[in-house]
Amino acid sequence: MLREGKIIPIQSPYASLFVLCRKNNGLLPDNPRAYRFEIDYCKLNVITKYPRYPLTLIEDLITNIPPMKIMSSLYLRSGYFQLAVNPSDVVKIERAFVRKNGTYAFKRTPLCLSGAAPNFQKAIDIILRPVLGKYISVYMGDVNISSPSFARHVELLREVFKLLQEAGLTLDKNKCNFGCEKLKYLGLVISKDGITTDESKVKVIIEMKPPKNSREVSKFLGMTKWYHKFIKLRRSLLAPLSIRGNTKNLFCRRRHRLHLSRLSARLQKYRY
């Protein structure tokens, strides 16, 4: 990050820790890609005040995407790091972080800082405001473009590229998809036929080992909640699991495992 100009060395009496965190991507603990480095801004976030801005509700965003013949998804490279910190704020000591070789401050917007998400969403909304609407939607760094024809699609792509270029934002070409009939977007699959679950995400849920404690039960319930619209009678299926999740006993009864299997199976059957 120092070579890329994202951070600078500073002197500060205060500093947050540089820590290794587990990603919520379903990878096994022995996989290096299951982790990432973050700054522990917990103590700073408690006392931080920042301008509020509404984050887009993913469910509202998804249901408003029209079924179209051709779609593309764009992904902004490095997310928050594309937004520069005000030069006068860079050297403020409260955002400093420490590593074994020194103390540093960010010149770009860091993860885990209070206000980073709404500030980023606001910036993207302002940049793409001229084109947001029926065919184009955005959630943080993910942009979806849906069109009824190829000609219209190319026209919309050019408009979006122009706005991003004028704002100095860049895309991650390895995470962008162009001219698709089916498109993975925010954990779902969108096509002209409607919206369905992402098989790779569902596979992770189905292949999960039966929870053995309340923490693992909570993790399972959280993963299925993302797909609640696809699960008929989800509440009745989850009721005994939720009750069980509030205990410290092992999750081992046959009827609970039956609810798990039913819940997983129904994920593959329903559309929006």
UniProtKB/TrEMBL annotation:
Q: Which CDD domains would you find in this protein's record?
A: RT_LTR
**Which segments constitute the Reverse transcriptase domain?**
32-189
What PANTHER family does this protein map onto? Answer: PROTEIN CBG26694, PROTEIN NYNRIN-LIKE
**Organism source for this protein?**
Trichonephila clavipes
Specify one Pfam family: RVT_1
- SUPFAM superfamilies per the UniProt record, alphabetical: DNA/RNA polymerases
Q: Which InterPro entries match?
A: DNA/RNA_pol_sf, Retrovirus_Pol_polyprotein, Rev_trsase/Diguanyl_cyclase, RT_dom
Q: Which GO terms describe its biological process?
A: DNA biosynthetic process
Q: What is this protein called?
A: Retrovirus-related Pol polyprotein from transposon opus
The gene from which this protein is expressed is: pol
